[in-house]
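Internal ticket #5521
Category: modeling
Description: The requester needs a full-assembly model to guide mutagenesis choices. All entity lines are attached below as received. Residue total reported by intake: 479.
Assigned to: D.W.
Attached entities:
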Amino acid sequence: MSLLDKLDAVAAARKALLPEGIDVFGMPIEEVYSATEARVGDRRILFLGTNNYLGLTFAPECLKAAHEALDKEGTGTTGSRMANGSYSGHRALEREFAEFYHCHSGIVFTTGYQANLAMISGLAGAGDVVLIDGDSHASIYDGCRLSGAEIIRFRHNDVADMEKRLRRLGERSKSTLIVAEGIYSMLGDQAPLAEIVRVKNAYNSILLLDEAHSLGVLGKTGQGLVEETGLIDGVDFITGTFSKSLGSIGGYCVSNHPQLDQLRYISRPYIFTASPSPATIASARAALRLLRDGTELRRQLWQNSRQLYARLDALGYQLGPQPGPVIANILDSPQQALMLWKGLLDHGIYVNLILPPAAPEGKALVRCSVSAAHTSEQMDHVGNVFAELRKSIFQ
Amino acid sequence: MTTDYNNILSRLCFHLKQLASPDVVIVPETDLINELAIDSVKLLSLVMEIEDEFDISVPLNVLADVQTVHDLANLIQHIKSTKQ
């Protein structure tokens, strides 16, 4: 098969699965009205498929900071952090992340994806082992591949299975990087961090926790699962993203290991890319302050999440194992998932559609992402639409 | 060594039969993807079953080279032998 034939096969597979005339993946958003509403075609829609957990994309403080940085420092840095791309804002944000987590130091990356790529490939290499959860995000899988280390998966959130694999490694467990996530993006469930830390300590491994979906969501000040569980000292490296609760784009890592700083000199995803734009950094700095002080935002987010989860559960939808801002509806077939997704869109509700092989265990997902900016009335409306669609989808 | 390989092959065929259609005959040369229609997700689940059965861990890196039932049996035997 030629290189282009492979792409034709992708097109054929998409055509067989997806309806004509609808951009299921990459739907064009024509106009954005607020953190929760936009226009698709000529229809006003409710966003229920963004990662804007705290609803900060239009926070006046973030907009003002971004505008000022744009005016003062221009549209982009046009260079790597390694060269001309380390402005005062980038360095300040690194200090602020370290302070926020009470950690020794922090590094800022251009995207959250690159943060995982950079950290995993910088920490592990040929001869080492990376032990990852089966439901890990693509950035974790790709970071592992880039590292050249041996990649071993354990069953999702199954610490006994993880321990079994560490035992098999023998002495090599000491050169093993374990990677877990605070909240998993597919099913919205949390990692059993206490058990993971206990096992990691017993086998003298290193633990990296990705708080991409849990930053701003869990913990009193929004640090994530490390704060929720009080286990920050048990985690060696914490990564995360600006593109969810911080409403911007970028990534970070914090650690108490002083060696973290050396990653700047060996990590290719840090070195060989342009640094985040000044406006991006400025809005992330403003958002981090709002996130830290965002007790009320978290209360609203969790109220909305519990309200919608309870309603969908009562309607009989099969959901991820625990309530949270990521509410995954698990469908047995892609056709059912497409019907539900399209039905929601026809009622002005945008959610994410996840089809095999991206969905776990060959299932298909219709994933709702709840925001603090949603209202209780909007959650009620969404529940009513799900109730109406259930009859036609499961008849 | 041969006995070990045959034993692995037999156990592997047992697991594969659970995933394949009943009329498919599984031999060492059978192609996992083209003949048994085992996609990447099913292959990873199968590998986890096999890992438990033989008390080994199969790194994802080496699975890319596996095309046939024989390739997989060979890989398991290799991992088992390096562990001992």
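Resolution: model delivered.
Comment from assignee: Chain B has one domain: 2-83.
Ticket closed.
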